[in-house]
Design a protein that fits this description.
Number of helices: 4
Strand content: 35-45%
CATH class: Alpha Beta
Strand order of the largest sheet: 5-7-8-9-6
Number of domains: 1
Shape: globular
Oligomer: single chain
Number of strands: 10
Order of helices and strands: EEEEHEHEEEEEHH
Distance between the termini: 62 Å
Radius of gyration: 22 Å
């Protein structure tokens, strides 16, 4: 693995590598680290409502994100954040869940792994889309510090779309954080806030 402080000079996508000062970092296509986890949903995975617990699915997705990111990076990877977690449909005990993960985006030291989950009723032969989310992972070297990761080789229109979509999600997230920080710093309980809350299911009981 290359030194994290080796500055990048040029990139040649046709050669599937980045040329750096005194070193070369070979890129990997999306298919290189694409992985699947398939698991039967057993009774002890159920919540109080009899459906598979969301935390169980999140744990499986986190493991898959680690596999995809670590294979691409060639290093140990840790989860930094999870975006756009959606539980679209409930998963029943006895169904088989398949989670498909791929590296959608690569930064200097971070990766975004997109995961799509499906659940299949083996008796009825019916599959349904149940989960979608995006894990941001950071690669760590032997000393525990973040290290650079290989570039991602985009071979299809879908690869490009997913890479660009990850960039847009990052922009929206950064803009949202900036907006909320400003909102929090400048918050004032005034008539505008009272009018806003009047349309919501809450009771404003703050002493004046």
């Amino acid at each position: 693995m290359l030194s994290a402080d080796c500055p990048m000079l040029l990139s040649f996508a046709s050669l599937d590598m980045f040329i750096l000062e005194d070193c070369i970092m070979v890129g990997h296509p999306v298919a290189y680290s694409r992985s699947v986890i398939t698991e039967l949903m057993v009774p002890n995975y159920a919540n109080f409502g009899g459906k598979v617990h969301g935390g169980t699915l999140m744990s499986l997705m986190d493991k898959l994100a680690y596999v995809c990111a670590s294979k691409h990076a060639g290093n140990y990877c840790v989860t930094v954040s999870v975006d756009n977690v959606q539980f679209l449909r409930p998963v029943e005990v006895g169904e088989v869940v398949s989670l498909m993960g791929s590296v959608n985006y690569v930064g200097k030291k971070s990766l975004v792994v997109g995961i799509r989950g499906t659940s299949e009723n083996l008796h009825e032969g019916i599959s349904k889309h149940t989960n979608t989310c995006y894990f941001t992972m950071v690669a760590k070297g032997s000393g525990g510090k973040p290290v650079e990761v290989p570039p991602l080789i985009l071979e299809t229109d879908e690869d490009v779309r997913r890479f660009c979509s990850a960039l847009q999600r990052r922009r929206i997230r950064e803009d949202g954080l900036l907006f909320m920080n400003r909102y929090k710093a400048n918050f004032l309980l005034d008539n505008e806030v009272s009018e806003l809350l009047a349309q919501e299911r809450c009771v404003l009981a703050v002493p004046k």
